[in-house]
Design a protein that fits this description.
about 30% strand, D-amino Acid Aminotransferase, Chain A, domain 1, binds pyridoxal-5'-phosphate, 9-stranded mixed β-sheet, alpha+beta, D-amino Acid Aminotransferase, Chain A, domain 2, globular
Length: about 350
């Protein structure tokens, strides 16, 4: 049996009325899961309690040196109304490797998953049922020692909060416009680009808001040394279809190893596509687009699942991919993966975990 203490509340929040009107990340469920870490005790004090503010000493290390990591995952409702998680073991495994990179303790992955499952059982009614909607899950780990010197914390807080989200494609499955960033970079070899650390995202905001000002929805990041090779698009991995070969940047150390990326590679191979994980230069993409060989491009990540790319701007040279329409393979991959995630398509790899 579990050693998670559960404190219930009799005052449940008022839930959303129309799941289609939910804005990402604005509403939180009734409960939070927390646990603490100390070197002599390991992970302990696992609790589910009513959602509340966290009180911390202002000197806590997380506020000063950014020792913070997180994950992003989703729960969906199956056609029979059971909560489904998509490859949650992969998220907690990745969180442990993020922790190692930031000199934080490895997660107790089993306890974290147990905490999440218990939390979901309690909050099942928060999972929206409409097509495309889900319950977004945010596991987080922060350094809480009050100390102004630079050192790794001894004590850590891990928590999971959840937020119902509407359909990502409420206005249709439309391609996005992407600005190729040539000045700023997201990550460098030897840095923290391959882990989900909060600091990476703080450092990306300036470039993405400049791209938005120019009318683009995200930036495409190039490598940190030569500004030549493609890394990622916003907080998604990226795929290009050249005729019948699909190419995605190889995991070089500065690219986040997406679980959606890994799953899509598997589905593409199953469908008989040749998938190349390799260096791919922005020059190659533009050259082959002009020769008519670039048929489709799409990003992958938990939030959007699969997001078609319609326009790329590189130093003010603009290419349109598939006439700025969603490509057939992009749509097929989106339907296949969301079908597995929502329990509507045969899940031969056992990716979906029923709670
Ligand atoms: C989270 C994330 C992704 C996508 O990872 P998934 O596991 O597919 O959600 C890709 N790139 C970055 C930078 C990310 O933060």
């Amino acid at each position: 049996m579990s050693n998670i203490t559960i404190t219930k509340t009799s005052e449940l929040k008022k839930k959303y009325e129309d799941a289609n009107k939910l804005v990402f990340g604005e509403m939180y469920t009734d409960y939070i899961f927390t646990m603490r870490y100390l070197p002599e005790k390991g992970w302990h004090d696992a609790q589910i309690k009513p959602y509340e503010n966290i009180s911390l000493n202002p000197a806590s290390l997380v506020f000063h040196y950014g020792q913070e990591i997180f994950e992003g995952m989703k729960a969906y409702l199956s056609p029979n109304g059971e909560p489904l998680l998509f490859r949650p073991d992969e998220n907690f495994k990745r969180m442990s490797s993020s922790a190692e990179r930031l000199k934080m303790p490895k997660l107790d992955e089993k306890l974290a998953l147990e905490g999440l499952c218990e939390l979901l059982k309690l909050e099942k009614d928060w999972i929206p049922a409409l097509e495309g909607t889900s319950l977004y899950i945010r596991p987080t780990m922060i350094a809480v020692d009050p100390y102004l010197g630079l050192k790794p914390s001894q004590e850590y807080l891990f928590f999971i909060i959840m937020s119902p989200v509407g359909a990502y494609y409420a206005t249709g499955f439309n391609p996005v416009k992407i600005y190729v960033e040539t000045k700023y970079v997201r990550a460098v070899p030897g840095g923290t680009g391959n882990v989900k650390a909060g600091g990476n995202y703080a450092a990306s905001l300036l470039a993405s808001s400049a791209a938005k000002d120019k009318g683009y929805s995200q930036v495409l990041w190039l490598d940190g040394i030569e500004r030549k090779y493609i890394e990622e698009v916003g907080a998604m991995n990226i795929f290009f279809r050249f005729n019948d070969a699909v190419v995605t940047p190889e995991l070089s150390g500065s690219i986040l190893p997406g679980i959606t990326r890994k799953s899509i590679i598997q589905l593409l191979k199953d469908d008989g596509y040749s998938v190349e994980e390799r260096h791919i230069s922005i020059q190659e993409v533009f050259d082959r687009a002009k020769k008519g060989e670039l048929l489709e491009a799409f990003g992958t990540g938990t939030a959007a699942v699969v997001s078609p790319v319609g326009i790329l701007n590189w130093n003010d040279e603009v290419i349109e991919i598939n006439e700025n329409k969603t490509g057939e393979l992009t749509l097929k991959m989106f339907k296949h993966l969301t079908g597995i995630q929502t329990g509507q398509i045969d899940d031969k790899y056992g990716w979906s975990l029923k709670i």
